[in-house]
Amino acid sequence: MTTVSKFPLLQLPQKEILRTIQSIDIYQKMSFSLTSKRCKRLVQSLQIKIKCISVIISSRIYITVSFSDWTLYIRFENCIMQREARKKRLRAPQWVEADSRRLERIGFEYSDWLKHFQDIFHCPSTATISFFQGTCVYDIDDIKEGFGATKTLYARHTGCYAYNLALLQKILPIENLTINPNMFQDSKIPFKILQQNYTTLDIISDSTTEMTLNELLVMNSKTITMTDVRVSAQDLNKFIKLWIQGSNSRMEYFLIHTLNHFEYDRTMVMKGIKKSNERREDMDVHSIDIYRMDGTRATVSFFYGGIEISIVLITMLQNSN
Amino acid sequence: MSVENAPVVDVDEAAIPVEKKMYYRFESNDKKEFRVSELAIQQSETLNRLVEAMGYTSEDVENKPAIAIENIDGKTLKLVFQWCEHHKGEAIPVDDGSVPKIVEIPEFDAKLMDIDNGLLFKLIWAADYLNIVQLLNVSCKKVANMAQGKTPAQLRRVYLLPSDEEDEAAKRAAQEAQDPRAREVEEEFEERKRQGGNSFF
């Protein structure tokens, strides 16, 4: 039997306790912080700098801690789950690993783990919650309770259409949403999702998806980007004309980007629209200024693969003058 | 240099005449005496300031009693001075509360610190008191290395970390020791509560 070397660390002068725990690696710092409230406070006092904490949910659950040049993956494994109403309940994970190193805290539930990392890294909010295939096995209320508060949601198909919608409704409202049309039947994102007041709405399609004028008009976000989403030139033309008349008044930036280098017909998109300062920005970008009825200027840029509408805000103009 | 990325203060060796090496005499709390070179003493901010303030000449050193270091025993002080002599003239890291990103323990230091944890504990206390920054960096690194690959439960055993309940009990005991009346007041309060009284005062 090997004897364990023992050292009364906490009986050293405070400065040397901190010097010691500063010298241990990040995994041991986390382990140390889990041993008691006092040890947690000591690790907190090191003021470890991180960029953000995020949560990834698929068939497994991860908390990620992003440092300036690397990301730590904390994996929750062998969760104790009981089938209640056919959904798995999130209970205290059986064990937790940070980059394959075991962490332990008996009785800690998911929300406790998240709170603990937020506390020791001085990061009170969750930057992003991402849902992937496999999330649908978990109880939505448990997800909301364990990880619910976030500003940014990255949602992919969880494995069940009804669950996708219910999950989004549960987590909303949020500031930034990245969503995939294939989360919904016929790849149609419901209006009630599109019309929320997001700061950023990113729609990323796996295979080219069509969107209609009506879908564009209900979007109420400041920044709207769509990847591999096709909107007809006629609908874009109407969309720009309606913007000139005052629709989508919150919009500051709009981008359609396709991965197959599709090129819009400028003549069709700009048909009947008063243009000014038409110019070629560089080899592949053709820009045209347009004005809304209230005088707000926007630049419509055509390029291989899509179109961009960038609205020049009054505050931006004031800053540049 | 064993420590990288550390801000350093250069020691001006040229300013010390080779032919007139100055030594000082120190005495531990168990009356062990040590002769330590002036250059070695520079590794300790505390001792360096002390000898500067005393302004001893070589004659003073021989004629006056050894400088007493009353809170460090001879066994520990021997290690401290061995370390200082070995590292004399080396650049001294500035103690700004930060720890260098990479602390490597040189072979000499590793051998010096091949001691039981009780003595290592005393060595860190001594280095803290004498403010020997580089010795603190390597000795605390040695303690930090004990955490390598340990789970929280193992860390608790290695570092003798008290649980929350033990911390609470120790805090209460300390409060009571400071104010013996506290327990009486608490008991009186509990008694009055039991008797159904609404107001304590």
Folded structure, characterized:
The complex is a heterodimer of chains A (321) and B (201). Chain A is of the alpha/beta class and 321 residues long. Helices cover 28% and strands 32% of the residues of chain A. In chain A, strands 7-6-3-2-1-8-9-10-11-12-13-17-16-15-14 form a 15-stranded mixed sheet. In chain A, strands 4-5 form a two-stranded antiparallel sheet. Chain A is elongated and about 80 Å long. Chain A starts with 13 loop residues before the first helix and ends with a helix. With 201 residues, chain B is mainly α. Chain B folds into 2 domains: 138 residues, Potassium Channel Kv1.1, Chain A; 29 residues, no CATH class. In chain B, the strands form 2 sheets. Chain B has a 3-stranded mixed sheet. Chain B has a two-stranded antiparallel sheet with strand order 1-5. In chain B, β2 and β3 form a beta hairpin. In chain B, α4 crosses α6 and α6 packs antiparallel against α7. Chain B starts with 7 loop residues before the first strand and ends in a 7-residue tail after the last helix. The N terminus of chain B is likely disordered. The chains are: A alpha/beta (321), B mainly alpha (201). Chains A and B meet through α1, α2, α3 and β7 of A and α6, α7 and α8 of B.
